[in-house]
Design a protein that fits this description.
It holds the Pfam family Polyketide_cyc. This is Coenzyme Q-binding protein COQ10 START domain-containing protein. Strand 7 and strand 8 form a beta hairpin. The chain has one domain: 2-Layer Sandwich (Alpha-D-Glucose-1,6-Bisphosphate, Chain A, domain 4), CATH 3.30.530.20. The chain is built from two helices and eight strands; from the N terminus they run E-E-H-E-E-E-E-E-E-H. The longest helix has about 30 residues. The protein is an alpha+beta fold and about 180 residues long.
Length: about 180
């Protein structure tokens, strides 16, 4: 995990994480935007408002509300492009909508490894509008960077484990032979 800030206030975060799940389980988590609330820390709302197959990629537009601290929440509209053949998802703000951030760009990339594992690469650039209190910026940048890949690892591995163990049998009874 690494964070870089340039003099203009642009913050860039990079993170690489190995996950004990196949890439299909990881992509299932990343692309299930409407189920982010409760999985992604500090996220209050996540609603897909447009999906469109653009040939080379699938466009997914999502509204998110992030509750950082009491009195500080940010509403943003994102334009995601999922390139299935390239194992990549890029995003920026949806510039047709007003967002509380000045600019955001990011990228998820997932590579398969041996033994049903994968490596996840995450990068995001964030530029705020105006002056932002230090504690708020810390949460939006450093803490969010750790949490961005942390929830994907946790939820992907949980889904993989559940799939491998199979459905629970009501009452604990053994299946009939």
């Amino acid at each position: 995990m690494k964070q870089i800030e340039d003099p203009s206030g642009l913050k860039t975060g990079l993170c690489v994480q190995d996950i004990s799940s196949p890439s299909t389980d990881v992509w299932s988590q990343i692309l299930s935007f409407n189920s982010y609330v409760g999985k992604v820390p500090k996220l209050k709302t996540c609603e897909t408002y447009e999906t469109k197959d653009e040939g080379e990629f699938k466009r997914i537009k999502v509204k998110m509300v992030i509750g950082v601290l009491p009195g500080y929440s940010y509403t943003c509209f994102y334009d995601h492009k999922y390139y299935k053949d390239k194992n990549s998802l890029t995003w920026s703000l949806d510039y047709e909508e007003y967002s509380d951030f000045d600019d955001v760009q990011g990228h998820w990339h997932v590579e398969d490894l041996e033994e049903r594992r994968c490596r996840v690469f995450y990068a995001a650039d964030l530029k705020m509008r105006g002056k932002v209190p230090g504690p708020v910026m810390n949460i939006l940048s450093k803490k969010a960077l750790r949490e961005a890949t942390g929830w994907v690892k946790r939820e992907s591995e949980k889904a993989t484990k559940a799939r491998r163990e199979g459905p629970a049998i009501p009452g604990g009874a053994l299946p009939q032979q």
